[in-house]
Structures are given as structure tokens and as C-alpha cells.
Amino acid sequence: MKKLNFIPDGIIFDVDGTIWDSTPVVTQAWNKALTDTGFGYVQVTADRLKGLFGLPMIEIMRDILPGVSDKELKRFEKVCNEYEEDYISRVSGHAYINIEETIKELSGICPVIIVSNCQSGYIEIMMKHLDLNDYVTDKICHGDNGLSKAENIKLMNRKHGLKRSVYVGDTIMDANACIEANEPFIFASYGFGHVDDYDFIIDEPKALLNLFK
């Protein structure tokens, strides 16, 4: 197993599969949106969404609704985002064990930042549910500015003057974004995906604290 040979000056987190798992709630929102927009012949499962999370929303929709025009996908996306925000606002996702305490402790050591490919507003809902507003320095997502995860990682590093930050994620999409951004990748093996190439691996969030010893 590879090890980091430096102490990070910042830590950037993915959301789904890394901080929490909201797929049971999101699945309900997606299936209602599919039904209400005329695509009820397609229904998704939590496991299918777990395999797609990490991709931009448009790519997830194209996978679930192949052959549907971009105009119709945009119509579905608007409804789906509204339903998802409503469902998640009312019912929290499942936070991984010790993640809140770990983020709070890390925030006293270095900036804690969140970068995700989710829709705008999703990170804010998650942070409110888990009481993280006072501990996260900054956040950005694909839904906010349309940029890729790699570009948003670089954006956050420039914005906060970080020279040795690390990214914590759980999928091959996260690993590939880190390669593109030249960012050390910490694989959260407790999450949704499987990754073979990483700089550091953790089987629980609290293990992140070992990076600062």
C-alpha cells in the first residue's frame, strides 16, 4: 500500500459514498420524478445510483434514459432536482461512522473543503443535516459552475493557496479527477466504488487523522 510522504495543508472531500449515503432517499425522489415526467417505464434502484454517483448529472440521466433528447433530459432534470432537494431536506442521508467528528477535528488542523459533481444546493443540505456549517471552509459543485471535478479541485486549491492538499473520494471517477488535477487521492474503501490505484486508503473516516501525525 502506498503512503503519503507529506503532511497535507488542506483536505477536500467528495460527498456521496465519502461523507454520507443518501441513495435510499434519492432513489425515491428519482422514481417519483421519472413517473411524473412520463418516464415511469424506467425505475432505478439504490445500487444502480451508487454505481453512477460521481458522474455529472447529465451523464447519469443519459445512462438511465438512453436515447432521450437533451431537451427532455433537461425537463426531467428540473423536476428531479426539485424532488431530490425536497426529499433530502426532510429525510437525512446516512452519515458514515465518525465522519462528523473527524471533519470537525480536521477543521482545527487545516482547511476542509467539499468538491462534488452534485447539483447546486445538495452540499448545503448535507452540511445542515450533519451540523458541518462551522467546520467546512468552502464548497463547490458541478451544479454551481458547470466545471468538472478536476477543474473544481484546482479552483479550490488556487482560491485557498493550497500546495499540498489531498482529495478523499470513493470511486474511479474520483481517482481519475485527481489524476487530471495532479491531486493526491485518498480512497475511502467504505464507500460505493472500487479503486486499485490510490495514494492512501482508509477503511473508516477517522483513519484520516493518521495523515497529520
Structure description:
This protein is α/β, with parallel strands linked by helices and 213 residues long. It is 44% helix and 14% strand. It contains nine helices and eight strands. The strands form two sheets. The protein has a six-stranded parallel beta sheet with strand order 5-4-1-6-7-8. The protein has a two-stranded antiparallel sheet with strand order 2-3. The mean pLDDT is 95.
Tally of extended strands?
A: 8
Describe the largest sheet. 6 strands, parallel
CATH class of the largest domain: Alpha Beta
**CATH superfamily caption of the largest domain:** HAD superfamily/HAD-like
Which fold name fills CATH's third level, the topology of the largest domain?
Rossmann fold
Secondary structure: helix percent: 40-55%
How many helices in DSSP terms?
9
Taking all residues together, what is the mean pLDDT?
Answer: 95
The assigned structural class equals alpha/beta
CATH architecture annotation name of the largest domain: 3-Layer(aba) Sandwich
Strand content: 5-15%
Low-confidence stretches: none
Strand order of the largest sheet: 5-4-1-6-7-8
What's the domain count?
A: 2
Distance between the termini: 18 Å
What characteristic shape results from the CA principal axes?
Answer: globular
Give the topology:
Blueprint (H helix, E strand, L loop, with lengths): L9 E4 L6 E2 L1 H14 L9 H7 L4 H8 L5 H21 L3 E2 L3 H9 L4 E5 L5 H9 L7 E4 H4 L3 H11 L5 E5 L2 H10 L3 E4 L11 E3 L11
Parallel strand pairs: 1-4, 1-6, 4-5, 6-7, 7-8
Antiparallel strand pairs: 2-3
Helix pairs in contact: 1-2, 1-4, 8-9
